[in-house]
Design brief:
alpha/beta; binds S-adenosyl-L-homocysteine; binds iron/sulfur cluster; binds FE3-S4 cluster
Length: about 450
């Protein structure tokens, strides 16, 4: 009988990618994925440690897993519980100590060992944590992936050497590591051959990607993207996340010259105050950041810019926060993610004396999000009446509806038959909210006009 695995993925896109790779590795051993935890022989959670809330969610999930495991045991069914991801790297064996039902814990750079740990697991020899920094080995060991739809993630770089003073990523993902150009090209080809029309290149600091190309010369991200664009079948290329001052002139030119490179960039500024950026240990000031946005917009005038923000960083004053609001007005972001600062164990910012009270953080977040949403809606409204090429990626919430993405990463809803899934279709935009666009087939609207 085939064994079933349930996977709960928390955290960022890198975790989504990792979960897919873990499920693919288990599938090679005959495991099938289930969406029903009660029928799973292996319950897994892929965890995130970025903010306190994210880490707390892990232990409530493990509590639920424990109940399922006990209920299954009463029916004579054995269940393994495995934890993967950044919480494991951060806490190590403490995960097993804190959550007694957990059998196996693997860090984000050790998950290639998961199939062996699961296969060899023995209740007598017992529970185990594997959390070593082994990027090289991990990527070399994993079997080539298959695409599970028309869009796929592809991790090209992992880890971070920036040590922003608030952030746990350098501790959970280790130092910067770039995969070889050949490995990335092979993986992209494998994804395209199995149905991917779009790939999203992933890295904690993706612009730092570098490596020897198949021609023996040192390659940087722009060259890699140029080569990826030559792969038949791949029609859209995206990448994330960019560290503002690591974007090279070549990358800016790539946005101008490579049609398959989508006009969208995630460029987290975090704060609009130079004093706060300095305390955050970000390597740029506001005017340097704005200069990068200007260059990008000169090269590709329609490029959509998105950002992350942290409010209530230690020492942030009302005046600092006002400066963040001013930058938001100036850049007019197409999309954004904003968070209250969360002190993380072991990070320098958590030890800073001038922590901002929770109520002030909440108030600032509310003001910022209201502004960001209004701008996002205004951005989307500009497209009403236009025609956009939309990659149809999934079924919509309503019957007969499909969802897809515009080049600017706007979510678009349209009523079309499901055999159009995976197609890039010209759609006439008929409406817009802050979070999505509604549309009808362009052919239909031209017939009506
Ligand atoms: N490498 C990316 C971001 C990775 S984490 C970059 O440098 O931009 C994703 C986002 O989480 C960050 O951009 C930041 O806005 C937020 N974040 C990270 N640590 C945080 C913390 N301690 N509290 C609140 N938000 C945090
Ligand atoms: Fe974290 Fe900064 Fe690295 Fe981004 S650049 S992952 S925020 S340390
Ligand atoms: Fe979270 Fe790890 Fe990603 S801490 S944001 S899952 S790199």
């Amino acid at each position: 009988m085939t064994k079933k695995v349930f996977m709960n993925t928390m955290g960022c896109q890198m975790n989504v990618y990792d979960s897919t790779r873990m499920l693919d590795a288990l599938a090679a051993l005959g495991w099938t994925e289930t969406q029903t935890p009660e029928e799973a022989d292996l319950l897994m959670v892929n965890t995130c440690y970025i903010r306190e809330k994210a880490a707390d969610k892990v232990f409530s999930c493990l509590g639920r897993f424990q109940e399922i495991k006990q209920a299954r045991a009463r029916k004579g069914q054995d269940t393994l519980i495995a934890v993967a991801g950044c919480v494991v790297q951060a806490l190590g064996d403490a995960v097993l100590k804190k959550a007694h039902s957990v059998d196996i814990a693997v860090g984000p750079q050790s998950y290639h060992k998961l199939p062996e740990l699961v296969t060899r697991f023995n209740r007598k020899t017992g529970r185990k944590t594997v959390a070593e920094f082994t990027s090289v080995e991990k990527f070399d060991t994993l079997a080539p992936p298959v695409s599970h739809g028309c869009t796929a993630f592809l991790a090209i770089q992992e880890g971070c050497d920036n040590f922003c003073s608030y952030c746990v990523v350098p501790y959970t993902r280790g130092c910067e590591y770039s995969r070889s150009a050949q490995a990335v090209l092979d993986e992209a080809r494998a994804l395209a051959d199995t149905g991917a029309k779009e790939i999203m290149l992933l890295g904690q600091n993706v612009d730092c990607w570098h490596g020897a190309g198949p021609d023996g010369k040192p390659w940087h991200l722009a060259r890699l993207i140029e080569r990826l664009a030559e792969i038949d079948g791949l029609q859209r290329i995206r990448y994330t996340t960019s560290y503002p001052v690591d974007i090279t002139d070549d990358m800016i030119a790539a946005h101008r010259d490579i049609p398959k490179l989508m006009p969208y960039i995630h460029l987290p500024i975090q704060s609009g105050s130079d004093a706060v950026l300095k305390a955050m240990n970000r390597r740029y000031n506001v005017s340097q950041y704005l200069a990068v946005v200007d260059k990008l917009r000169t090269a590709r005038p329609d490029i959509a810019v998105s950002s992350d923000f942290i409010v209530g960083f230690p020492g942030e004053t009302d005046a600092d926060f006002e400066q963040t609001l001013a930058v938001v007005d100036q850049v007019r972001y197409a999309q954004s993610y904003s968070f209250k600062y969360s002190p993380r164990p072991g990070t320098p910012a958590s030890l800073m004396k001038n922590q901002v009270p929770e109520a002030v953080k909440a108030e600032r977040l509310c003001v910022l999000q209201t502004k960001l949403l209004a701008l996002q809606k205004a951005y989307n409204l500009r497209f009403v009446g236009q025609t956009l090429p939309v990659l149809l990626t999934e079924h919509g919430k309503e019957k007969g509806q499909l969802n897809g993405y515009s080049p600017y990463l706007q979510n678009v809803h349209v009523c079309l038959p499901e055999n159009r899934l995976g197609d890039i279709v010209d759609l006439h935009i008929t409406g817009a909210t802050a979070s999505s666009l509604s549309a009808e087939p362009a052919s239909l609207s031209s017939k009506r006009n």
